[in-house]
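Long-time lurker. I teach an intro course on protein structure, and each term I like to show students one example going from raw sequence to a predicted 3D structure in token notation. This year I'd like something fresh instead of my usual example. Would anyone be willing to generate the tokens for the chain below so I can use it in lecture? Attribution to the forum is fine with me.
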Amino acid sequence: MDAEQLVMSSELLAAASGFCLNAEQKALLPNSLAILKNEHGFSKVNYWGKLQGLNGDYLIAQGLGENVGDKKDTALNGGGEPTIAEFFESLKTVPKKSFRLGPDGVSWALLPAATDEVKGKVKEWEEAMRSKGRVFTPLAGDPAFKYEYTTKTGAPAAEGGEPAEEPKDLQEDLRLACMVEEIDKACSVVPVGAFILSSSQAVMVNPYYRGLSLSSGLKLDSYLHLRKPEVLPTLPISDRALLQKSSQFLDPVSHDVPKGSWSLKHDPPNNLLVLRSLLYPGYVHFSTVGSPLYGSAYHGTGARNYDLPFML
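-- Reply from a regular --
Happy to contribute to a lecture. Here you go:
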């Protein structure tokens, strides 16, 4: 949800999903998010959502775009028209940085980068937990908390014995960063037309977006993933040639696997189009019919619904 319209968007989110911010958060978050935007020079800052822990919750914010002062240079440095084969390779998606709210309720701490090394360590820890029968372990609620686990080194401690086990630990801040990126990659949704391409193939906010009509808003093709395209580049080049580059440069949620992982409904009393993720229950996107106001947020433990293919 856009920080500049957080109070209004939070009311619509509460009407659409039942998740709401308390009075203290409504009073503090708009100003703290505005400070975050100015300090880092983001073009836009969103309230991303809340990840629930055993001893505390994490409020997450996300900064979008590069420094505002670079927009003019970016627009002037546009290259030539890319070929159909090079179109998605040259596409520059919106840069994102995620933050968690500090214990003072005002300042924001940058989450660690979810590098391949960090993801590998988190995956190693998850495999160690699954070997003990734990499909999902809730967050502790403390970014300094360390998960202790052991991995087999592959070399037996003694001849004919079991492989030796090496003790390791994983800091929760690293796991939190990977969890946010994973959910964001699977669920970050914007309505079609809300973002456009600049002359330099950069994805940017469309200042002239006027919202979705009811007929188009009830189609899954009208909702796009705000990430590097993964499905469209795999289409045959003949199909890619038919795409409208001005609007069809991001993956629509209708291509997500498994089919049926999204629930789309119209809420007539509130004039809202509500899109819910069944893969990550707790993620809700809403769009006001005929209005540029839209938003989304995730509220949950971060657990993925691995049973979804069997439920459809």
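Some talking points for your students: The two ends are 29 Å apart (CA to CA). Residues 68-80 have pLDDT under 50 and may be disordered.
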